[in-house]
Design goal:
345 residues, alpha+beta, Phosphorylase Kinase, domain 1, Aminoglycoside 3'-phosphotransferase, Chain: A, domain 2, six-stranded antiparallel β-sheet, two-stranded antiparallel sheet, 11 helices, 41% helix
Amino acid sequence: MRKDLLIKAAQLYGFDTASVKEVPGHKGGRNLVFMIGTDSVLRVATLSDRSIEDYEAEIEYVHYLSEGGASVADSIPSEKENRIEIIDGMAVTMFEAAKGDQIADHGYQYIDGVPIDEYFYLTGKALGKIHALSKGYRPIHKRFDFFEKYNEKYFESLIPDDFFCLHMKMGRRVKDRLHEILEELRKLPQNSENYGMVHFDYSDGNYNIEYDTGRINVFDFDNCRTCWYLYDIANLWSHGLGWIAWNNDVNERRAYMEKYMQTVINGYRTECTITDEELKHLDLMVNAVLMENIIDVFEIMKAAGKEFDFDTEESYNVKCLVEGLSWFGFYSDIFDVESPFEVKN
């Protein structure tokens, strides 16, 4: 199937199939991804849970950001001048390859001689540029909204009451707590200054760093939707925990994360406004990130036809959720540096 698909794609995009290398997938991945030489990426949507209009909305948004000067990997039109082609019923898109490298590929080491705070600052700045452009975005094709997916009806249908986790029946408790978070989120203001198109998975796995300049190049807008801009910031907060997770002193962990977040916000504010009042809701939005992580696990297992059997890390998230432990339990007794973000035996 892959060979036949790539031959058809090569005819549409004008590349040599000999230059193709498949990128290994990850748990819960929804696409086939191929590197075409070193300059472009071919994405093939393998699931049928999204419409062509959804993909058109994503591509329109990314192209808008690119045209506006954001550091994003734009789509590349086919030889027919289409930014999306349908091959064997699947949506196929070619993107520019984001310049630079993942920080994980450098052992989480930043540019020699440059303080790590500059990296944090630049991640905030790149995100701020995206959000500033989003505030002026008037799409032809509208992407789905946060509450179109995250709502009580969906949670009730996805999570069975008899779901067991940590040797206890947790299904009802999980759903009740998720409903509470939704209710809290609905009380937040929604206006053009705080709510619009977001990446929804902004983290070091979805941007590259040009190690000669520090420039951040963002890709993978596959989950983009309308939501609070604060969600992307909260997601970035959650991915910053690893920088200090080894430290036994909870006060030092808290101080580090506060400094980290302030550095990110300082960079963000060079491109986009966010008020101190909005930032007071960061803990609630971190809970929304936790909610998304848990729902994602249920969805992956359901799609694979597997039993809802959570491992120690997934169970940790459930425990934080049902016990109301904010900040991913990072400042609570549940957190153990010997097994971070895992339930203790």
